[in-house]
């Protein structure tokens, strides 16, 4: 049994070059933040990872990011997906650079992994070598610290998270108790880059074991 990549798909992107003040107030934009980029995609955790990368590649800040309830299979429309993210910057060029970084992560770097051929049993064990401002704030860690982003279905997530924390010198930085909006669970763990990779490997291995022997306790 092998893991196979399950990639997210970007569904829609729009740039607002100069946001109306009423909208700017809702997102609590800073004085210099006049431009917005709005993006939706089919997998929320990949989206969160991608918008964090935008904060490292451009002069932008994440001002809104949410998962949609029940996931992409129950989306409110064909362009809704599972996630919406909004970044703000001082100019259209900056937010476009941020979107370019988001697209690169979604298309080439971050993905879920499927355990079964139907791709109905999936998990996310992605190592961020250097966090940007968004994930650093979520995890309450220094910007630029390594992070392992570990997500799976409810039972698998809790068992796998325990295995990850025991496998390496890492600390639990954020806990996502199941069910999340998309009925998953997991957490963010931090340590050295090598420790985060070991934790992610242990998470992945433990979930594969559950898939092979779901009731062999």
UniProtKB/TrEMBL annotation:
InterPro entries, alphabetized: BMC_CP, BMC_dom, CcmK-like_sf, EutL, EutL_PduB
> What's the domain of life for this entry?
Bacteria
Q: Which UniProt keywords apply?
A: Bacterial microcompartment
Q: Where is the BMC circularly permuted domain?
A: 109-217
Q: Does the keyword Ribosomal protein apply?
A: no
Q: Does the keyword Cytoplasm apply?
A: no
Q: What is its main location?
A: other
- State the compartments where it is located: Bacterial microcompartment
Its name, as the record gives it, is: Ethanolamine utilization protein EutL
